[in-house]
Amino acid sequence: MGNPARVVIFDTTLRDGEQAPGYTLDVPGKVAMARALDALGVDIIEAGFPIASPADSEAVRQIALAVRRPVIAALCRTRSQDIEEAARALKPAERSRIHTFLATSDLHLRAKLRITREVCLESAVAAVRLARQFTDDVEFSAEDATRSDPDFLCLVIEAVIDAGATTVNLPDTVGYGTVDDTYRFFADLIARVPNADRAVFSAHCHDDLGLAVANSIAAVQAGVRQVECTINGIGERAGNASLEELVMAFRVRHDSLPFDTGVHSPALYETSQLLAQLTSEPVQANKAIVGRNAFAHEAGIHQDGVIKDPRTYEIMRPEDVGQPVARLVLGRHSGRHAVQNRCEALGLQLSADELAHVYNAVIALAEHRKAIGDGDLRRIVERLRATGVATHTTSVAS
Ligand code: MN
What we know:
Elements: E1 5-6, E2 8-11, H1 13-17, H2 27-40, E3 44-48, H3 54-66, E4 71-76, H4 80-90, E5 96-103, H5 106-113, H6 117-132, E6 138-143, H7 150-163, E7 167-172, H8 179-192, E8 200-205, H9 212-221, E9 226-229, H10 243-252, E10 259-260, H11 268-279, E11 296-297, H12 300-308, E12 327-328, H13 336-345, H14 352-366, H15 374-387
Parallel strand pairs: 1-10, 2-3, 2-9, 3-4, 4-5, 5-6, 6-7, 7-8, 8-9, 11-12
Helix pairs in contact: 2-3, 2-11, 3-4, 6-7, 8-9, 12-13, 14-15
The structure holds manganese (II) ion.
């Protein structure tokens, strides 16, 4: 096997993600997030959809002014006003990409757009040609690609590459594909399109069935070299492929997934937290990589293992993704060893007899509490030493 292939990370947190209910950001919030994405090392930031609103357009312009290393992309339909507005917003960018999209499935053409395949093909080509007048970096997305007729899709892809598209994105817009479908879909198209070698193929997977990350990886294995993803997996409906999960899958399983990204993984956690703060939408506790439970252990057997060697229950280190430390949560499922370990960390050396008392008090208190904090533990030990009785009632102040 040769050198690992480089996969381009196209972040769409500020476009597809921001479009989701509850995730709206104002212009300063978007600029702050874009700076964090720059520090994280993403290759491309999709900053917005300028024709959608003046605020969207202004956010793209401000990001283009403030963030100079990554390529700044703006979304537009195939109408010329859309493309011109995207170009206007992107004007200050060091490096800009116009991302134009049009649906190619018969369902979308008939039910939504009410146009024929011929008009679709002509519009796609005209849009790419117009976009190329503003920048050399043009992406075309065939919306609902995975439910499009493959023969027609091949014609569209070949035509837009001839017209100057440098990236061809084939979204699973509705998150319908399975892993096998996705692999075959991309492998077949890349093999069939005669000028496929002149463009980068890209995947944009949605998580309606919880398969967005798995499908994106299958696409990469089939020859795709750009993945579109978001921080915390936010996006329309169930969201997009999660950036942090993709990056860490390539890193942790490099043995079977020999792909590199430019992402600096220790910045993942703080980027995830920043998004949660800016949008006031918390990250789900058990979210892979960045959830507060992703490196937390409560079960006694697990805590015992992690204390002896973290590798017993952790496939990556918390510091690899910027999580504070592995958290041994004291609760109803904890064991004696974890209680002792936590006390030692707090500078409390316990005799065997004291440990037995403190452990019983922790278990009793945990009947009423989700988790036992360091303050609780200190009070239990102090009370035991003062009175010989380990407090284990709800009267222990929190
Ligand atoms: Mn999408």
